[in-house]
Design brief:
The chain is mostly beta strands. 14% of the residues lie in helices and 41% in strands. This is Beta-propeller fold lactonase family protein.
């Protein structure tokens, strides 16, 4: 009885592990703002295969990306040396609808942009 119960629990845990989704986000150096610049791929952790989920056109050279700790938002810095560059944008990612939506796009006041994954929690960062 114990081996059968162990096997059932093992199969259920494998199916749950396989059901989890892992996403990879890529920024690019695109030549025109009307071309795709930000990409979302799903990673099959068993095979290592990447499959394109969605992309976003309308952002020029989103070369530095960071994902919020909850995985719902992607922040992108654009290159400051390109014409009209030097901005920070946030995107809402909805994996159920395979949708990436621009939330905020702000031109940077400085030439050097930096974004950090740190989030203030409790008494520290």
């Amino acid at each position: 009885m114990k081996p059968i119960l162990f096997l059932i629990i093992f199969v259920i845990s494998l199916s749950k592990a396989h059901a989890q989704h892992t996403y990879a986000f890529f920024g690019s150096f695109n030549r025109a703002q009307d071309t795709e610049g930000l990409y979302v791929y799903e990673l099959d952790t068993l095979s290592g295969k990447l499959s394109k989920v969605t992309s976003f056109a309308g952002i020029l050279n989103p070369s530095f990306l960071i994902v919020s700790p909850n995985g719902k938002y992607i922040f992108a810095c654009t290159e400051s040396k390109t014409k009209n560059g030097g901005s920070v944008s946030s995107f809402a990612f909805d994996p159920e609808k395979s949708r990436l939506r621009l939330s905020v796009n702000r031109k940077a006041a400085a030439k050097i942009l930096f974004i950090s994954p740190s989030i203030k929690t409790g008494n520290g960062w």
